[in-house]
Amino acid sequence: MTVYRAGLFPLFRLLVVLWLKSHLYEATLLKNSFKRFPKSLLTERYWSASAYSLGLKSDFDPSQPGQIPVEYPVVIKYRFTPVSSQPPHQQLPLESRPESELQRARASGLEDNYYREDIIQALAKPDAEYCWDFQIQFQTSPEMSIDDTTIVWNEEESPFFTVGRLRVKHQQVNSAKENDFGENLSFSPGNGLAVHRPVGAINRLRSIVYPIVANDRHQKRGVKYQEPTV
Question: In terms of pLDDT, which residue wins out, 209 or 24?
């Protein structure tokens, strides 16, 4: 079996190289995705590459899968933009992790828990407070694809605008009970209100794959999943 797998690896590597050479746009996106490492996850921008509905048709049937073309009243994408915790809540500049620190972490050969430790220490401070503006962007033309998530929606044609604010304040996030609670959770883009249901090919695939992965993880931990309560 080991020999068999060893023989397949060069073939797999060759297929990956050929795919990247024949998909230059996607290869560039992958390369740029790993070019920058945030200084802190508490001052970073987050966004949905995939689209979500906002509102439903009057004859909406929740038992039916999403169809193309989408016929909901509105389709949107969203993002969380880091802003200062004090008025006028100005947008924070995106900062990167120092290259020297990255090289030191790689050279150590140890597991890199930089972001975990940063969140634990930052939120442990009594006056800790981090804010993000919650923003949405409307789909305003067919060119703003809901199936191809590599296509960036034009912000000049449809700018993001703020509809809310997320605040994260002082808290302890490293207890064994909290860690266990987090491991027992199950994430899926479809786990939400029907009026905000995910749309597009990628989201339909995620809605199938994510529950399968979560069930496998829970079975290995000997946990029967249930929705969290207060």
Answer: 209
